[in-house]
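Methods — Computational structure assignment.
A single polypeptide chain was analysed. Its primary sequence is given first, followed by the predicted tertiary structure written as structure tokens.
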Amino acid sequence: MDRFCTAGLPSGWKEVLDEFFQTARGRALRDFLSERITAGAVVYPPDPYKAFRLIEPAAVRVVILGQDPYHGPGQAMGLAFSVPRELKKLPPSLKNIFKEIALEFDAPVQDEGDLSSWAQQGVLLINSSLSVEQGKPLAHAGLGWEELADRLMLRVLQERNPTVFMLWGVWAQKKAALIEEHKKGEVLILQANHPSPLSARRPPVPFIGCGHFKKANLWLQEHGENAVLWSTRTMQAELF
């Protein structure tokens, strides 16, 4: 089965993807992906739309933007920054995310990298590119996925729900203007360096110490939404 087929997706997302793939850019991207897979390229993730299978547009309360899926075997799973539960060696960026959560909530550092529980609580984990090739970071960047990512964020904004956008790193922060221009409800934009070890502790806004997860929860509660349980190793009561 074509892994890039949109069949079975919630209608709110499916409409956006189908419209994009009907454009010249979208058709060219599908042709490229088909050609690369036919040529024997190892393309990740196995389910590029997993983020959209776990949550509908109306349920999104937090959006976290990544750039590129992990390009190592067994890592990418269709949720930005997330890795399968059975993967024991966590990517450095994900380790730093867990360090920050532990710092904010005075909790043990999580060592289980599947973030599906975040999605089930209303967190959309989306990369700007939804595919990559093994050992070739950014191999599918600049081919149209970025346009689709913009369309998907606009779809979230159409819902008018209170929504937190976490923009980590230069690429993600470029989306702040798009969000501000098209927001229809209350939004909170949180910006910091990318959690990569190359930038997590550097200025101008180090990721470690940014306080984004607690800020998001407090803001959501102020707007009548539930806090997000960010760590499986944190008691629910400690998040308030």
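Note: The mean pLDDT is 95.
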